[in-house]
Amino acid sequence: MGEKKMIRKEIKSPSKKKAEPEAVVPRNSWFYYDRIPISCPSFSSNFKKFSTIRKNISGSGGITKSWIKSRCTHQTWPQLAETNIYPKDIHWNIPKTYLKNIPLGMSAPLEIPKVVITGVSCPAFAYYKLATQYSYSGWTTSYCRIIDPYSIDNRFMEFTNVIGFQGTIYAISRQGCLAIIELVECEGDSANYEITAIGRSRVVPCCQVSKHFREYLLEYKGEIYVVFLLSRVSINIVDNVEVFRLDKLKLLWKKVDCLVGDAMFFVLDDRCMGISASLLGCSKGSNCVYFTHDRADGTWFVYDMKSGCISTTPGPEIDL
Hints:
Elements: E1 29-33, E2 36-40, H1 43-56, E3 57-58, E4 62-67, E5 80-82, E6 105-106, E7 115-117, E8 125-129, E9 138-142, E10 159-165, E11 168-173, E12 178-185, E13 191-198, E14 212-220, E15 223-231, E16 240-247, E17 252-256, E18 263-267, E19 272-276, H2 277-280, E20 288-291, E21 301-304, E22 310-312
Parallel strand pairs: 18-20
Antiparallel strand pairs: 1-2, 3-19, 4-5, 4-14, 6-7, 7-8, 8-9, 10-11, 11-12, 12-13, 14-15, 15-16, 16-17, 18-19, 20-21, 21-22
């Protein structure tokens, strides 16, 4: 089939006016629940939906990657590199030497993380161990000595994106390889997080004519998804969106053409969310991916999975 037509608009976010002390909140005012734009019919709805949104937030946000040009026309695996990545604030007592100036990726963004990734292989990730009879509590580093199957120069895996669900850590390497990290019982009274399995397929966009893309990991109803925001030329403009779902039994990534049920996805630089439209209280806006990024100047966009169109949006409206 031919390429779907895209609609792109770039607008600047409206200037914010200072609210009066005794101002009355008008009907259909816009609120940001944990930075998620939702239209509320009343001020009380703002508080009722806030906890629902927080419970459905997953993932540690996005990572920006770019394809590396190669003179080798017969290269088996086109290589990827990170671009435009800035270190995030660290709110936990994690030794900065573990991170080596690489942005923090975490398995639980709203809680103290049990596992953090470094973006390098030495160490690959760190995890927090509770005190036992023979040891004190504290952070422990783990080195990765597994070669990334999609690295043309046989480099060890370097994790750049991560999400945790039901005790299992799903990490994606710089080159798009999935690694399963789980707590493994050791001799004595201790347990360590170790890589227990490697994905059987590479998770990268199908449309490789894009020069850059943003990658987001999220969980929705027990399933793990990856959302790609594709940029053909300029990183400032998103030209297409692709969504993949992980087959957790076969460890294979499959592209999806529509979201399950009445799902709607939200992806930001530092968090993601998959939520049911009816649970949120919206009669419209399902089967869509809502996104913004650091170059969007506060503007939100929506990608309609059915039409394949991208347009600006203030967000879905709570009307139920």
